[in-house]
Write a structure and sequence with these properties.
heterodimer; A: mainly beta; seven-stranded mixed sheet; four-stranded antiparallel sheet; globular; B: mainly beta
Chain lengths: 121, 108
């Protein structure tokens, strides 16, 4: 049973880079059985997919954020990370890391608890 | 980008009733649709994938149907723990993966 946990600063200044880490337990992050992703949810609003990464290292990003997003994997620590540059107040959201174990379905059956990141000076 | 539209925005129901939630895609997504449930302060939980396959541990009162552009999540005999927000998500044509705006099922 996979477990995911987000970590990182809860407050980021405008124009800076938001950095979050997702630590995975209960499975290997480099297994071909899984792929990983980040989803955000502004306060009181719906879900927005940020991007995903496969065990091979292939990444896929939301075109609306692509120029500012980097997702990477650290297999030695069984973690994957999110970097979002040049943040503004509009990037304030709960950020979830998530995993998928269902072959053929790009949905997410494992989720972290989420972490609120506020962009403010 | 495929736009997912959910209706209604809010559904007022009584426990024991059947709830029917709709999700429409801006173009055909075959059967590549998932449904999630989210309760306040919690992460979303996968309910359904592939339009109609229940995820592990999901009760049989949750069922999904549809294909192409029109999809439905049905919750038979609403339980108190079912009052939540429900999101649909397409994964037929991505990136980006896209979610609907959500339907809140509230107690009447």
């Amino acid at each position: 049973q996979l477990q995911l946990q987000e970590s990182g600063p809860g407050l980021v200044k405008p124009s800076e880079t938001l950095s979050l880490i997702c630590t995975v337990s209960g499975g290997s992050i480099s297994s071909s059985s899984y792929y990983w992703g980040w989803i955000c949810q502004p306060p009181g609003k719906g879900l927005e997919w940020i991007g995903s990464i496969y065990y091979s290292g292939s990444t896929y990003y939301n075109p609306s954020l692509k120029s500012r997003v980097t997702i990477s994997v650290d297999t030695s620590k069984n973690q994957f990370s999110l970097k979002l540059s040049s943040v503004t107040a509009a990037d304030t959201a709960v950020f979830y890391c998530a995993g998928n174990s269902i072959a053929g379905a790009a949905s997410f059956d494992y989720w972290g608890q989420g972490t609120l990141v506020t962009v403010s000076s | 980008e495929i736009v997912m539209t959910q209706s209604p925005a809010t559904l007022s129901m009584s426990p024991g009733e059947r709830a029917t939630l709709s999700c429409r895609a801006s173009q055909s997504i075959s059967s590549n649709l998932a449904w999630y449930q989210q309760k306040p302060g919690q992460a979303p939980r996968l309910l359904i994938y592939g339009t109609s396959t229940r995820a592990t541990g999901i009760p049989a009162r949750f069922s999904g149907s549809g294909s192409g552009t029109e999809f439905t999540l049905t919750i038979n005999s609403l339980q108190s723990e079912d009052f939540a927000v429900y999101y649909c998500q397409q994964y037929n044509n991505w990136p980006p993966l896209t979610f609907g705006g959500g339907t809140k099922v509230e107690i009447k």
